[in-house]
Amino acid sequence: MKPEINTALITLAQELIQRFSPLLQDEYEQSRLNSWGTLLLMASMDLDKAADNLIEQNKLIKAFLKKYSRKIIDRDLIKEIDLLTKVKKPKYDISALDELNQEFRGALVKTQAYFEKESNSEALKEIWKILRVMHNHRKVSHLLTLLKS
Amino acid sequence: MEENATNILGQEFSDFLSSKLNQQFKFLSIHRIFGGASRETYRVKLQNEEKKSQNFIYRRTQDSSLIETDQKTEYVAYSDFQDTEVPVPKLIALEESSDKLGAPFLVMEELSGVVASPFDKEAYNPYQAEIGEQFWKILGKIASRDLDSSNLNKLLPNKNKNECCTKELNYWVNVIRKDSIGIEPILEAAIRELFRSKPQPASRLSIVHGDYRNGNFLFEGKHITGILDWEMAHIGDPLEDLGWALSEIWCWGKKETPAYLIPRKEALGIWTQESQIEIDEDSLLWWELFACVKGLAIWISAGHEFSTGKNSDPVNLFSAWLPGDIHSEIILNKLENLL
């Protein structure tokens, strides 16, 4: 089996931080290279799950919008949700998934604002659950231990 | 910048300072200091006429910077605390035009001490208590600084106790609208919440540092030797600095001790005693949520700089990814709890 991209990136990050950075005399350049190594590590962790995460986010938002659109009486918003939830065959390259994700996010923001005005706590609770899942997908804060300097 | 170009810059700086201070300096070395994306900061070592070496801090405006701030504002903010109990570097010069060295800059004497990463929870160990007391006391002193004699107050017009929150919120939301490269529902929810639930008018107008936190001060052993990075200083509600300094992002690995120093209750007690300002709890909570939005505006701006290729410093990418993630999570925790 060919070596995975993730493995290559992690190795590259380690080489940069452990092998090449100590060779640099200039403190600024050394810190800069260490930062790139750390960022590369973070990127490699995100890479493998990126498409799957976007698919899940889009599914979650779509299901929510479909479920709650009947509780919305704003015609423009209903129209926007209808158009968006009718997308049948999404492409699976990350840029296309991300583009669709942005549209879903836009609709979610409007819907959340709408339900805040309506004080619909049931809908709002569901939205926060979705936002928690979305946040967890790109969570990197647990990597803080890597970044002491 | 390549080594040769940096050395040329150091030599030019030396010539500038010789002319400015009417004495002959000899250029010895120049090193860029890593971190902070709003200015290029250099440590320049020069030899004076008595053959003694002297270190200077040379802060230069970047073509592209995280937050567009004026060198003069920073300089004037420092000037308000020269020779006071708020330790700041001694100012040497401000050059507002790009004619002399290619970009506006300010020059200060270097203070002793080190700066810690705001993400290192052990940075102040074993002197958290001592440094903590000074940290919150100094912030109280900044908040209670008399504005009648403040240069910053003279420089920045149109202040109003009732409008501090709206003015700041509008400013940072505009930054988000200008630089955002994606839709962030968590951030949008926080912005709506802030516009819905305004705090009490400021109890007084104060000098606001604008980025008062761990990682922005120098310390040596158990002593704080300098408060740095005043580029976002302005006149406003003193609770703004308090909300920013208390933010969980600066104590993410140990949330019970803001700034990785001392517990919140103790910190607020010290601040209140020093500033003689009573804290309205609800207003402080508003300013803490505001700190997340302001933070995200800064991180979004950093991401924008990076994405558009204006500034490929890894600090920008780092800011967009990691602190941005933490501030989003803080908002998530706060707003979920409101339901």
Report on the structure:
The complex is a heterodimer of chains A (149) and B (339). Chain A is mainly α and 149 residues long. Chain A is 73% helix and 0% strand. Chain A contains 6 helices and no strands. Chain A is elongated. The two termini of chain A are 37 Å apart. Chain B has helices spanning 3-21, 71-79, 128-143, 151-155, 164-179, 185-196, 238-246, 264-275, 281-307, 314-338, and strands at 26-32, 39-47, 53-61, 91-95, 105-109, 114-115, 206-208, 217-220, 223-227, 234-236. Chain B is 44% helix and 15% strand. The N and C termini of chain B lie far apart (51 Å). Chain B is globular, with a radius of gyration of 20 Å. Chain B is of the alpha+beta class and 339 residues long. The longest helix of chain B is centred in the last third of the chain and has 27 residues, at 281-307. In chain B, the strands form 3 sheets. Chain B has a 5-stranded antiparallel β-sheet, sandwiched between helices. Chain B has a 3-stranded antiparallel β-sheet with strand order 6-8-9, covered by helices on one side. A two-stranded antiparallel sheet of chain B has the order 7-10. The mean pLDDT of chain B is 94. The interface between A and B is large, with 37 and 34 residues.
Topology of this structure?
The complex is a heterodimer of chains A (149) and B (339).
Chain A lengths: L4 H16 L6 H21 L2 H19 L6 H11 L8 H25 L2 H17 L12
Chain B lengths: L2 H19 L4 E7 L6 E9 L5 E9 L9 H9 L11 E5 L9 E5 L4 E2 L12 H16 L7 H5 L8 H16 L5 H12 L9 E3 L8 E4 L2 E5 L6 E3 L1 H9 L17 H12 L5 H27 L6 H25 L1
Antiparallel strand pairs in B: 1-2, 2-3, 3-5, 4-5, 6-8, 7-10, 8-9
Helix pairs in contact in B: 3-8, 5-9, 6-9, 6-10, 7-9, 9-10
